Amino acid sequence: MIRAFCDSDREVIIDIANRAWAPIRRMSRNALGDKISDLLVGSAGDSRSKGEEVRRKTENAPGDILVCEEDGKVVGFICFTTDNEKKIGTIGNNARDPECDLKGIGQQMYQAVFEIFRKRGMQAARVITGLDDAHAPARRAYERAGFNRKLTSVTYYMEL
Fold it and tell me: Which of 6, 25, 126, 158 is 20 to 30 A from residue 64's alpha carbon, by CA?
């Protein structure tokens, strides 16, 4: 069941975010090294930085978050934004609980957000993800959801 976020979901989705992003944080640290990784994740550290990002979203735009609930337990979440000027809806942080083996959670959440985008008058949807191996499952999920056009880029870093 997909439903609107409520305050009692906050700690659960923060925990899901932190656990779901663990492989991505490991990949980033391996690729970028400690100094740049520490700058990017801030004081929260690798194990809590994504959760803190999601916490800020729950505090600043709780109406732009949905959760997926199965048998009374939150098993996924999705954040999004809409740009009324450009008419583009953007899927942001989203994840399925890594310990949940249910299939199709992401697809259900994407379809629910697409419907919100349509109701808000959006004419296109976008999502941004990494090109590395850690993001491969996300890329496959977005392609299954219908994302079929892309621009690729590279982000370079250097220590000063």
Answer: 25
